[in-house]
Amino acid sequence: MAGTDPRPYLTEARYPCGRDELLRAAAAAGAGDEVLGPLGALPARDYADGDGVWDAVCACDGASIHDTAKEAP
């Protein structure tokens, strides 16, 4: 499991929207780190709806940006 389902915290998000709007909406709804962390790790693109956000969170599988970035030699 990729973490806590963020959709209950995104009811006030105005779709389509990017990661910053998702984080704003979730924080305003009282989401904790278990929701905000995975949302912050999402690719910076527009998401059509909450289901698309959940799919992206699951695909990310909780990997941090440092886990997926290539280190410079």
From TrEMBL:
InterPro entries, per the entry: DUF2795
Species of provenance: Amycolatopsis japonica
Organism superkingdom: Bacteria
Protein name, as recorded: DUF2795 domain-containing protein
